[in-house]
Amino acid sequence: MTTRSPQPSLPCPQAQSPLAACLIALAGTPDDTSCITSRLATIARLSADLIAAVAYTSVTAYRDDCFTTVATSDDVVLAVDHAQYADEAGPCLEALDTGSPIPVPSVDAAMAWPAFRDAALGLGIRASLSIPLFAGRGTVLAGLNLYGRDPAALASLIAAVCAAYDSSSDRPIRRADALDHGGTAMVAGLAEAFAVRDRIQQAIGAIMAATHRTADAAYLMMRIRAAETGTSLLDTANAVLTE
Questions:
Q1: Fewer C-beta neighbours within 10 Å, C or N terminus of the chain?
Q2: Contact (CB, 8 A) for 75 and 128
Q3: How remote is the C-alpha of 173 from its chain's centroid?
Q4: What is the DSSP letter of 4?
Q5: Is the entire prediction scored with pTM above 0.85?
Q6: Is the dihedral of CA 35, 37, 43, 45 positive or negative?
Q7: Can you say whether residue 172 is alpha, beta or left, with left for phi > 0 and alpha for psi between -120 and 50 degrees?
Q8: Which residues, including other chains, have CB under 8 Å from residue 239's CB and lie 6 or more apart?
Q9: What are the C-alpha distances in Å from 85 to residues 60, 61, 112?
């Protein structure tokens, strides 16, 4: 997965917008908890409500050996997702496969994905951005699909999100001058989510070094400790790293 290097500070949830706070919370939520789908649905709804350039949103996940849409802002957009699943190709599937955001700045030019292109154009969608999301384990859990009617309006968000995921980028993560409040919240939330993930991964690495266990075993040990102490995964990671 291509991501930025660890961020210098950990998140301050009380200072965040609801969208940013939800992205941060997802990064610290164990992947197997029952609230995951609810968190994904909230992220989809808030993205559609708060980002002016986004007309529709959906969330794609791989469950029960197939791709499925686990949340939408409007069921009309299911046609676009289902076209990609049937064709086994499209930006939402590529985001899940690569762990990187997949921008489609102009749907008209998406020749590699004809089923996606035709379904999107049929709904008046002219640009899209698929963003891989992760929870506590740190691996890609789902893909957030943002669909817009105005390519120019979505362009700033595409640039900012891709920069946030690009470890080699010298551009600032926050581009408040080019984004509305919703877009700024999304990029800020992703940046802090990376900081949460980095902290948890550092703790997993520390457990691996101390116990000579695999990454999966170390993560399970931290999950058990968090459950036994009644603390969050992030707080448990911080405790591991201060010991």
A1: C
A2: no
A3: 15
A4: P
A5: yes
A6: negative
A7: beta
A8: 231
A9: 10, 11, 14
- Output the six-digit token pair for 128: 């899209």
Residue with tokens 């992030």, as numbered in its chain? 234
Cα–Cα distance for residue pair 25/22, rounded to 1 Å: 5
**pLDDT value, residue 99:** 95
Please spell the DSSP secondary structure of 126-148, one letter per residue. -EEEEEEEE-TT-SEEEEEEEEE
Report the distance separating Cα 77 and Cα 80, nearest Å. Answer: 6
Beta-bridged to residue 58, according to DSSP, are 72, 145
Domain boundaries, given as residue ranges, for the chain: 13-193, 200-242
- Of 118, 119, 132, 156, which Cα lies nearest the Cα of 1? 132
Tell me phi and psi for residue 176, to 5 degrees. Answer: -60, -25
Task: Compute the distance between CA of residue 67 and CA of residue 63 in angstroms, rounded to an integer.
Answer: 6
Rg of the chain (C-alpha set): 18
Per CATH, which fold does 13-193 belong to? Beta-Lactamase (3.30.450)
- What pLDDT was estimated at residue 136? 94
CA dihedral sign of residues 80, 90, 29, 33: positive
Contact 118, 91 (CB under 8 A): no
Contact 213, 29 (CB under 8 A): no
